[in-house]
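Researcher: Structure for this, please.
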Amino acid sequence: MPATYARTALMPTYRRNAGRVEPRAWGAAERVLRAETAAGGAEVYDYSAADVTKLPGVTPATWPARRGGLPAAVLGTPTVAAPDSDLNAPSVAFGTSGDGYNTAGALDWSSRTVATLLSVSYCATTGGANVRSPGAVITAPGQTASNGGLALYYFDEKATGIHKADGAGGFVFERDADADTGQARVLVTAHDTAAPPSDEIRLYLDGTEETGTQSGSSGGNPWYAGMNVALGYRGGTTGESLGGRLARFIVTTRLMPEGAAVRCSAALQVISRLL
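Model: Predicted structure, token format:
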């Protein structure tokens, strides 16, 4: 931890944990995050940049899973980035094309109709239309979320949640009305393919629900068997990579209600030093 990092009311004291010195508030926030994402025995896959090598500029061959036991293998040359004024937390930096991490297809979600995705990311403003994954895609290997899966990403620099159920109609999306890149963001998307179309996706930015542009209805079918996690790119092709930095990504098979989504957003902001 940098010597210049100021103490605040959120970070009153420090403690030792596995050889690291960290604010007591970070540990409390991590406990909240773990409890909320795993509530009800939910299946959880959790990736933190704090768990990869700490050497800036290095391209780790794998991104280990903090929870879920599903490591992701490297594609291209994403690199470790040190905390700085853009994102004051460990992160992995991805170019706009060719970079990502993905797991082997190992998730059988053929009976799933609900899930929640959470991420902490920073995307530089680029201008113009773009499709970039600030967190990850959960879909069949080699496919994008619009072929059958779910994701949170930026389109035209606006935060968006998307899903399409396996073999069912058009995809559904919920998009923020305002451009959100150029700053660190905590995104949470709650997905329920069995809900009415207006509620199939709930999108939260930094703990506030967004009600921007929504479209489509997927018909309430489940997602695929043999799905995988794709970090830092859209899935299907690394031609659409993040063009920014990813600090944390979590997927849980719990459908988070608003209160839980807000609590997890706050916890992620504390853990990622955004508060």
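Researcher: Any notable elements?
Model: Helices lie at 24-37, 258-271. Residues 24-37 form the longest helix (14 residues).
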